[in-house]
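Q: Two folds, back to back.
A: First:
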Amino acid sequence: MAKKFYLLSLGCSKNTVDSERVARLLEEKYQPTTDPREADLLLVNTCGFIEPAKEESIETILELAQLKKKDAKLIAFGCFVKRYMEELKKELHEVDIFLPTEPYKEICQIFDLKRCNPAKRELLTPKSYAYLKISEGCNRTCAFCAIPKIRGKFRSKPVEELVEEANFLIETYGVKELVIVSQDTSYYGKDIYGKFALPQLLDELQKLSIEWIRLHYLYPAKEVYEIIDYLEKGAQKVLPYLDMPIQHISEKVLKAMRRGHSREFLEKLLNYAREKLGENSILRTTVIVGFPMEEKEDFEKLLKFVEEVKFDYLGVFKYYHEEGTPAYERFEDRVPEEVKEERKHLLETVQSYISEERLSRFLETEQKVLIDGYDEDFGTVPVGRSWFQAPEVDGQVYIELPVEERNIKLREGDLVKVFLTQQEGVDFKGNFLKKV
């Protein structure tokens, strides 16, 4: 009987890609299982970005250690392990093997795998979409971030390799949407081509049989102007969806965060995006509250800015005082936890009204919806996303099939026309019209 492996991927979408590569490699000798108790090999791809992620990584490892059967091996890899490898080896005896990030060579050596090609992946997402990680590491020196220490310097993947990988995902799984991810999408190509090369990559990806290409994690830099112009000129398959984390707006906090730009730069860039792309575009961002330099008036500036700009989507993170970061060396973590929590809650509450109001422009319109699966409660209602909804972080569309069409079976990756009839926050309900 074939041996089995169980793999759990924690953290961000970039981690998901790493896990998908590991899963594909292991399938040479193991079968995947969703039950850790029957696995001969249990793997956890850990996240070590902020304190809650580190706690989740440890808790997950300990839970799996209790579930694993006799003689099964437990492997932990990823950011958390790489960051604290020596300490974990001393403390976490439940783990049989510790591996770093991107542990493809190690996996191939340990299990004597012959087909060691990490370009191929076993999708952990619905087959409707896949993440395309275009680089590793980061060259920025943001004060709150440990990623450069964990993942190293920025390293772009060559255009031809990415096109080959994208083609594999499309041909193997029927993927309809590619979600471009990296630590700093605005930097792509500079290290290997000597210039910003994202437009060239997008040109090549658009030649593939893909429906949508979505951009995530655009660092606010002058290169974003180039992307806005690219979108405006009719990038047919690249969605007018800009995910650009601003983190703050107070000059004092931006400077302490070492973001390398001013409030004025951000305002001009956001105005340019709205002016060029209009209402038929989406602006998503993330912000951090409770940074050591953030006084009450700094937070109020941020709140006012959010109310004025009206982002379509906004994620709020509390600052965590992470060892090994510039902020940890330079500042005391002086904003009380309850104040951080209060600011986060207030900002999220304000944004929830803004998002609902902004997205109401899509109500009672006909939209293409990409099917991701069925509802979690009963598994009977088809669920998907329209172009203005990114996977995992935005809302969804719940699809009502007409009585006479109830025998229609919609599958992951189907593209359908839907008339949006109801809105609840960032989610919509809609009537099925036809398959595209």
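A: Second:
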Amino acid sequence: MDFHNKNILLILHEGGLGGAERQCLGLSKFLAEKYNCKVYLLLTHSDKTTNEFERYLAESGVQKVIHFGEPYLVLRKELSVKNLKRFIWSTKSFFKMRKGLKTYKIDVIIPFLNFPSKVAYFLYKLLPTVKFTFWHQLGLDVQRSDVFETIAANNIPCVVANASNGLELFRKDYKLAENRAHILPQYLTMQYKYFDKLSVKKELGVNDNDLVIGMIAHYRPEKFQDLLLDTFKNFIHEFPKSKLVFLGNKNNSELTLGKYERLTNKIKDYKLEENVILLSNIEVEKVLSILDIGVLISRIEGVPNSVMEYMLYGLPVIATNHPGCQGLLEDSSFLIENNEKQLKKTLSILALSKNERIKEGNKNKMLIASYSKESYVEKLTEIMNKYV
């Protein structure tokens, strides 16, 4: 079995534009254009979407976005009247989805993250045409351990994670036989886009000879912009012709807006307004075009899109030593623990040597070339055929 001329159902929780959503919509476009698939998108939580998401969606080849209202899919491990009601409400939600989706004659369901994976399993069982689905473990996600999730996690054909730590997270809560476990790194969603470096620098208030360090990441708690800012406060005494650029979507949630505001205040407290640029809602490629060093410091990652994008733009990368980052950067000496000492040391090595930056950047550009949509779908097809 392959993906040619198939009806595909992609499942997302909601219509924001994080890494999982970009992977989802990019895969849709590829399957529609290269494999002549009819692709449908189920949003489980809400039909509200961000402007960024809508822009990606418009080019994705998705034939229809489907939403059945916020589902109630919870069953606790307890004996109570409330739990009996939960079972009834959940059953109604499952059969509402079955009725609405049956007409599309779905062949393959591809979920993104845990709640969509739980939904995918029951649709796999309820829709007569579905031949394959899987649990898609993508790094930072939470297990609810309710009855429905437990049933799905233990009985779904296989678990696919984008890095080994994803499988370890899954194994903490559920039994997972080795023959059901697969690692499939995600593909590079971005295409190289040229911007005139001098024009962008002028627009952002960066001098032509400044060393530009950047961290592209959502302003979420698990991303450690504060650690980089604290390190930069001392780094700049040795390298005064440096700029630090942060880019993320501040409006993704109340949490991200709160963190953006705290960083703004911290920059003022450190008197670094001339050297630190805090951005939101600007093209990622624009920022990538002016960076000399890309940084991603965080608590947990799958296979981070930002590191892949740094590599596409031929940048040296300093990243936390997560398994997904190791997979991308291989034997890099710029994989570090989350502390100021190591971060400052690696920043200084790259700041002192343009040749080292060029060497690392060229190596990274070569490494990322194999992370294509074509390769991803080929490997996913091989996994699928183990179970169909």
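Q: And?
A: The domain at 197-368 is CATH 3.40.50.2000 (Rossmann fold).
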